[in-house]
Amino acid sequence: MAPQPATGDLRSRAEALGQTLPPLLAEAEMLASTVMMGEHGRRRAGLGDEFWQYRPAHQGDSARMVDWRRSARSDAHFVREREWQAAQSVTIWVDPAKSMGFSGDKSRAPKSDRARLLGLALAVLLLRGGERVGLAGLASPRAGRTQLLRLAARLSGDEAEADFGAPETEGMVSHGRAVFLSDFLGDLSGIEAGLARAADRGVKGVLIQILDPAEEEFPFDGRTIFESMGGTMRHETQRAGDLRTRYLARLAERKDRLAGLSRAVGWHFTTHHTGHPAQSALLWSYLALQGGR
């Protein structure tokens, strides 16, 4: 493993970063403050002290977390994990694909903004409750204010090159929990594979489909050019209104399929529209995660 920076240095850098973060963090903390949290069941003394498993050490694990006796029997480093550590680890995936940049109205923020806001606000709630939160493929689950600053910085990164995204599961903790935030309008096989990988690790979680109202209502008529956000797909029609019935049927089928895939692995599914307040989606996702512990 790479040498770990001193705790004081890491905290100083995180605090300095916090002074330059975009409004996303402040907005997420304000949103989180509107959701009332009940007593957090996982903080009861003595719960989950039993040994859970050995897991391979991840980038970001400190040297003191390594079980050197177990690691000496192999070529890899292992961390001794207790039951509560696994149960309290939540990994969030926010789709960075170009399709998430869509907004059907200039007065509405794109889907990507709502997804990042919900993901970070959920992290605020979970971290306040003493849980460990990470970003799939970007940041291993950890606790504390420093981690929140780290997550905010990572969520403010660039979008991916692909038109549509598939769930990332790297860094998920076995028997932990996860959140996938996306429009889920891409190839279903990538979504199925992501859920299957999570289920194989005993991970429970929630699927939150984020759509713009225009994607729900299909308010198009007459000559219309439909083009993907990345420009890789294009369709021109003279009578867009004639496509509405077929489009809405396909969208309903997609939602039913996503709900079925979620049920099959013990996950929860919902659809959230960017034209609606974010509070309801945040409360739903938080309660769904608590019910899936």
Give a written overview of the molecule:
39% of the residues lie in helices and 18% in strands. It has helices at 7-18, 24-33, 68-71, 83-87, 111-128, 145-155, 188-200, 213-217, 244-264, 278-291; strands at residues 51-56, 78-82, 89-94, 132-135, 139-142, 177-182, 204-211, 224-227, 234-237, 268-273. α2 (24-33) crosses α5. With 293 residues, the chain is of the alpha/beta class. The model is unreliable at 1-5 and 37-49 (pLDDT under 50). The longest helix is centred in the C-terminal third of the chain and has 21 residues, at 244-264. The chain is elongated, with a radius of gyration of 20 Å.
Spell out the blueprint of helices and strands.
Elements: H1 7-18, H2 24-33, E1 51-56, H3 68-71, E2 78-82, H4 83-87, E3 89-94, H5 111-128, E4 132-135, E5 139-142, H6 145-155, E6 177-182, H7 188-200, E7 204-211, H8 213-217, E8 224-227, E9 234-237, H9 244-264, E10 268-273, H10 278-291
Parallel strand pairs: 3-4, 3-6, 6-7, 7-10
Antiparallel strand pairs: 1-2, 4-5, 8-9
Give a summary of the structure in a few sentences.
The chain has 293 residues and is of the alpha/beta class. The chain contains ten helices and ten strands.
